[in-house]
Write a structure and sequence with these properties.
About 5% of the residues lie in helices and about 65% in strands. The protein is mainly beta. It is globular, with a radius of gyration of 18 Å.
Length: about 210
């Protein structure tokens, strides 16, 4: 039985001070970045947005430990020259902040995300130069009248499973949210360093084809 899910659970360190993001319905929201270590020693840097009511008042929170639960969201906006950009972040629903790691419920490095949605396009299936099998796809996760567009990547058997699917197929996945730096090439300009956020798939479950 499928049910709509978009749930992230992450424990790490606050990597930069909270700064004002936006106001909505008389509420103020602040953004920061959470540093989450992998087993390999590499860190993922995950952007978050939280309601000011959930944050401690008058504190410098950078470097403190944080555990949060929320939803992975995407938001499209346009620059002054009318170029479309997409911001992705975890919208925090619950959080705990403490300067003592032992007070966290889950260990530092916890990074899990559960999603239910439909494939936006047919997955792109290929092999890397080293011969690894990979499938890249975008999952549409419904949020009221706005679907969040979530980039995902799968490897090995999961990639082979996804390679057999087509757009609008409904799937459920669980994995980890990761950050990745890349160089964006533009005409007549030097390459720009950017950060992509994507879900690395650990498990996948296939549902029905969604029409419309």
């Amino acid at each position: 039985n499928f049910r709509e899910v978009n749930f992230a659970h992450i424990t790490g360190k606050i990597g930069q001070p909270f700064t004002f993001s936006h106001s909505q319905e008389e509420k103020r929201f602040y953004k920061s970045v959470i540093d989450v270590p992998r087993y390999s020693g590499v860190e993922d840097h995950i952007p978050i947005i939280a309601d000011s009511d959930k944050l401690p008042a008058n504190q410098n929170l950078e470097g403190q430990f944080i555990e949060l639960r929320g939803r992975f969201c995407s938001f499209a906006k346009y620059t002054e020259d009318r170029k479309k950009t997409v911001e992705r972040y975890i919208f925090v629903q619950e959080l705990k902040i403490d300067n003592n790691e032992e007070n966290m419920e889950s260990s530092i490095g916890t990074n899990e995300i559960f999603l239910d949605g439909k494939l936006r396009f047919d997955p792109i299936y290929r092999r890397t130069p080293k011969g690894r099998i990979i499938a890249e796809f975008t999952l549409l996760s419904k949020r009221r009248n706005h679907p969040d567009r979530i980039p995902c990547v799968a490897w090995g058997e999961n990639a082979m499973t996804l390679s057999q699917l087509s757009a609008k197929t409904r799937i459920q996945i669980c994995g980890r949210l990761q950050s990745r730096e890349y160089q964006k090439k533009t005409e007549n300009r030097p390459p720009e360093k950017r950060v992509a956020y994507e879900v690395s798939v650990m498990r996948v479950r296939v549902g029905e084809k969604i029409l419309g």
